[in-house]
Write a structure and sequence with these properties.
about 260 residues, mainly alpha, 9 helices
């Protein structure tokens, strides 16, 4: 747990401290958009009740002028929601691109630090003495995993920024309606659900990591076949290559099967 927090701190230092002015401005924009989105959702949520009031009236007393006005009013709010969602997606995409640029360049700096760093990363399976994690497939870590991390972080930041305001508001409302028992029940359910989720997700996380490692190995084997296709043609080793690929595929599918059972 402590190591994970240290790794998260290092990641946040890379993502937030470099080019922090632009990132801060974009996150503030996300915060404003998310808060306005909550207000819009509340307003849209009470529109159906206005339709019920008009349509539930006696046909002779029903005002179609009010109905047409309400339809136009609803369409305007739908347009506003669409624009806000597009704007939020735009900001999230800009943050993702900026973070991927920063993180990938930071990884490249370590990957090409000296004449032996690339060789050690690719040829020497050096395990971390603290976590016992093997540095496998650095090309996959830089090209694919860095992208996934930045994508997940860009999606997570708006939720983390807005959540305190939403939690505070609904805690106040539940306290006003049910007293102190309301917020206490919500917090208790959150703690219990978090503990259960940690226990259930631990094997899934382990098998997901192993699946990604096997996917990288399988792709690396195909890459070697492509690079050495001329040598393979001279030495007529196509059957051996096929057997090696089948072995790698069986290992990959075995891990994937374990992941399916874990879920």
């Amino acid at each position: 747990m402590l190591i994970t927090l240290k790794q998260l701190k290092v990641l946040c230092d890379i993502l937030f401290l470099k080019n922090w002015k632009v990132i801060t401005l974009l996150i503030v924009g996300q915060l404003c958009t998310a808060l306005l989105n909550e207000v819009v959702i509340y307003v849209v949520g009470i529109i159906p009740s206005k339709f019920y009031l008009i349509l539930d009236a006696v046909p002779a007393e029903r005002s179609y002028t009010q109905l047409n006005t309400l339809v136009i009013y609803s369409l305007c709010w739908i347009l506003i929601i669409s624009l806000m969602n597009s704007f939020k997606t735009l900001i999230t995409g800009i943050i993702f691109v900026s973070w991927r640029d920063v993180l990938t360049l930071s990884l490249h700096k370590d990957y090409y630090a000296n004449t032996l760093s690339t060789y050690r990363a690719n040829q020497i399976a050096a395990a971390d003495p603290h976590t016992n994690v093997v540095n496998d497939n650095p090309d996959q870590r830089i090209a694919s995993d860095a992208k996934a991390v930045c994508d997940d972080m860009s999606q997570l930041v708006p939720v983390l920024v807005v959540s305190p305001f939403i939690i505070g508001y609904y805690s106040y409302q539940s306290n006003a309606i049910a007293g102190y028992r309301g917020p206490l029940a919500v917090v208790g359910f959150f703690v219990l659900a978090t503990i259960i989720n940690l226990l259930l997700m631990r094997p899934v996380a382990r098998w997901t990591y192993e699946l990604e490692r096997q996917e990288g190995n399988f792709r690396y084997c195909h890459m070697l076949t492509r690079v050495h296709c001329e040598s393979s043609a001279f030495y007529n080793v196509n059957k051996l290559e096929e057997e090696n690929m089948a072995k790698g595929l069986r290992q990959l599918l075995s891990v994937q099967e374990q992941l399916v059972y874990s879920k």
